């Protein structure tokens, strides 16, 4: 499977200016392609093909006075921007037809220079390389300093340069993983586990282990409020406001980085120790509309489950989601009797059928494991493997200031 490894970049002033030009040119080509398609739709004409867009918006545009500066950046960056438009429309139409899973997608929109995230992508034919000195040499940008946290396991097929809202730069390499090396790194085990996610404890395992919730956002709330107040007092359009906005972005990025690091470490630990993992298919979007919204977002359950899912696929583990309407908190994990719903303040209860005293969360985790039907054969492999989609997100995290990750 393909994964991404992200590392922090430290471009100098000249390289930052060159990257800004590349970001701007890629954005202009993207917007021109969206406009060309929208004009064709309005006029009732067929959509222009990728070849037509490439010729008109890149090759011919470079010869005009209004777009001559497109020649100042790598042509590969501009071509990849057109491919992003194609992918966006493909996903939009698949969503309309119902052939794409997940929430409905809207039509591609124009990009803005004020977007929090700017990115460009270089494929192998762009002739980028990693120098002997450990720098990332990019066409028409130069050799950019990289903070390497680990060696790349294979030759990357492409690299994406990203600038985030906090003004940090990252290089994200696409790597094809080695299944044999992954099998050595994570040998098979006979353990299986059910996980009950919550807010009091981030996760409770079926073996009784309770993992506290770090509450990164709650702990940083005082600092975030102060930075946001300072931003609100700055005059719009001023340099001081831009500095204050970046300060707020850095504070939020620090919270997101810490949360992502926690999720990576915990998910890797669970994958290493268990051959089969069962979780409840929570409606995070629904819970985020309740009075617990801030705590739900702070926990980051969706990101954590996504990490578990792609790591299970990578290392040959079984990952199962059970239905969210299973009465895991109402059922006795010992005798199977359903004892009815209980308010959230009831953390322990006694089964009226068999008299077993249950911890609410541990009992739910046991029921999740049983509902998933996790079992292990004599060779240690789960007898109920599941199909798992490929991981879309980064393996490494854009947010880490050191380029470090735990996967």
Give a topology summary.
Layout: E1 2-10, H1 13-43, H2 50-59, H3 75-97, E2 118-123, E3 129-130, E4 136-138, E5 142-147, E6 158-163, E7 169-176, H4 179-185, E8 192-197, E9 201-205, E10 210-212, H5 216-232, H6 239-273, E11 276-280, H7 284-287, H8 293-299, H9 301-314, E12 318-322, E13 348-350, E14 357-359, H10 360-372
Parallel strand pairs: 8-11, 11-12
Antiparallel strand pairs: 1-5, 1-7, 2-6, 3-4, 4-5, 6-7, 8-9, 9-10, 13-14
Helix pairs in contact: 1-3, 2-3, 5-6, 6-9
Tell me about this structure.
With 407 residues, the chain is an alpha+beta fold. The chain contains ten helices and 14 strands. The strands form three sheets. Strands 2-6-7-1-5-4-3 form a seven-stranded antiparallel β-sheet. Strands 10-9-8-11-12 form a five-stranded mixed β-sheet, sandwiched between helices. A hairpin with a 3-residue loop joins strand 4 and strand 5. Helix 2 packs antiparallel against helix 3, helix 5 (216-232) packs antiparallel against helix 6 and helix 6 (239-273) packs across helix 9 (301-314). The chain starts with a strand and ends in a 35-residue tail after the last helix.
């Amino acid at each position: 499977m393909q994964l991404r490894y992200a590392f922090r970049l430290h471009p100098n002033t000249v390289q930052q200016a060159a990257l800004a030009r590349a970001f701007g040119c890629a954005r202009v080509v993207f917007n021109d392609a969206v406009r060309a398609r929208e004009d064709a739709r309005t006029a009732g004409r067929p959509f222009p093909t990728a070849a037509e867009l490439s010729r008109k918006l890149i090759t011919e545009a470079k010869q005009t006075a209004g777009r001559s500066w497109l020649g100042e950046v790598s042509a590969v960056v501009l071509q990849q921007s057109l491919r992003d438009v194609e992918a966006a429309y493909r996903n939009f139409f698949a969503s309309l037809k119902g052939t794409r899973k997940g929430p409905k997608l809207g039509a591609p929109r124009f990009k803005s220079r004020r977007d929090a995230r700017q990115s460009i992508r270089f494929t192998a034919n762009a002739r980028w390389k990693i120098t002997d000195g450990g720098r990332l040499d990019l066409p028409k940008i130069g050799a950019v300093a990289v903070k390497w946290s680990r060696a790349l396991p294979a030759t990357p097929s492409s690299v994406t340069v990203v600038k985030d809202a906090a003004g940090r730069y990252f290089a994200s390499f696409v790597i094809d993983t080695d299944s044999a090396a992954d099998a050595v790194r994570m040998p098979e085990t006979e353990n299986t586990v059910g996980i009950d996610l919550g807010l009091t404890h981030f996760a409770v395992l079926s073996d009784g282990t309770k993992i506290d919730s770090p509450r990164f956002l709650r702990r940083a709330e005082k600092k975030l409020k102060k930075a946001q107040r300072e931003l609100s007092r700055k005059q719009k359009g001023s340099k001081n406001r831009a500095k204050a906005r970046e300060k707020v972005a850095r504070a939020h990025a620090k919270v997101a980085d810490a949360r992502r690091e926690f999720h990576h470490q915990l998910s890797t630990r669970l994958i290493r120790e268990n051959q089969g993992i069962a979780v409840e298919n929570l409606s995070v979007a629904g819970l985020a509309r309740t009075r617990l919204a801030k705590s739900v977002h702070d926990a980051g359950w969706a990101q954590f489950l996504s990490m578990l899912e792609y790591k299970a696929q990578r290392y040959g583990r079984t990952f199962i989601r059970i239905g969210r309407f299973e009465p895991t908190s109402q059922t006795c994990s010992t005798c199977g009797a359903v004892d009815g719903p209980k308010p959230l303040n009831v953390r322990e209860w006694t089964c009226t059928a068999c008299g077993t005293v249950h911890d609410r969360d541990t009992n739910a985790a046991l029921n999740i494991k049983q509902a998933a039907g996790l079992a292990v054969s004599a060779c240690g492999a789960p007898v109920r493997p599941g199909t798992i989609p490929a991981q879309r997100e980064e393996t490494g995290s854009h947010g880490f200031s050191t380029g470090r990750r735990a996967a």
